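User: If only I could read backbone structure tokens as easily as an amino acid sequence. Underneath my words sits a plain record pairing an amino acid chain with its backbone structure tokens. This is the protein in question:
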Amino acid sequence: GDDDARGLEELRPKFIVMYDVDVGFVRRVEVFKAANPDHSLKVFFMVYDNSVEEQRYLSQIRKEKAAFEKLIREKSVMAIPIDQDGRIAQDPDEAFWRSLDTRLAGGQAHAPGAPKTPTVIVDVREFRSSLPSALHAAHLTLTPATLEVGDYVITPRIAVERKSVPDLISSLKSGRLFTQMEAMLRHYPVPVLLVEFDQARAFGLIAPADLSAEIRGGDVGSRLVLLVLAFPGMRIMWSVSPRATAEMFSDLKEGAPEPAVDVAVGVGVEGDLDGNLNVTPCDMLRSLPGITSKNCRHVMSQVNSLRELAEMDLAGLQALLGQEGGRKLHEFFATDPRESGALG
């Protein structure tokens, strides 16, 4: 360890004879020689040829080589935060904005004609997470609203559904994420799935050793692949921290128009229809397969009766409810209840 390095500096030997070969000490000697290129030094190993000691030393060398190869391979695919490795110069005002205490009402007064800060519409339930605070620290204006579709609306074209890793796994298993992506694709040209990792954990969803070449129903990676295949228009953002997410949001908003709050709130809610609805058909509609609380009002606004809904073909139902919901409802209407086990 450090004692070896200190001993080499104090003794500054010209010859070293190693009876018990140790890779760690060999590396210390190499560092000492590199730091003193003019110093004459020779190293001798005293070990029997083809002995256990020789094989132990060679095994240590192979392990060290494998560790470096793994490090190089991991670094080649590692996601590096954009504020590292000198990519972007630090904003001189960044320290001020991050240390600003908003309870003192700092920064509320803006000079006339000052540029308007970018706006992000945030679902009110998202304020339990740390991302809204990071967005505020990134100089983004937050507009809270009750959103039926998506958690964040960045532009009129981009909506984001945020998932932590545990929430992503549970949503994939329950099928809830499939329904959410279906609704987002129906209303936004660019739906985004944001997967936010914990800063204290590794930035990886699946260990490389657990990757499989086959798609398995119970595997998280396989479910995510199936989700991407079902919704090719979906985009996935991987974020190592809320701060990194805020920087990505700022990049997405650059040069884009601002979202309208009334439009975002109205997405997924097709007007206040409760006063003009017949209660019994509504209850029957909600009990049908493929009908959820998210799309129920949309169906009510598009069809006039249950009979009209039942007479629609598969293409029409899928256009109304999405691929999976339309298929389920079409199979239900096409099933003959007189067949054995049809309703079981």
Q: What stands out?
A: The two ends are 71 Å apart (CA to CA). Strands lie at 15-18, 42-45, 119-123, 141-145, 152-153, 158-164, 190-196, 235-239.
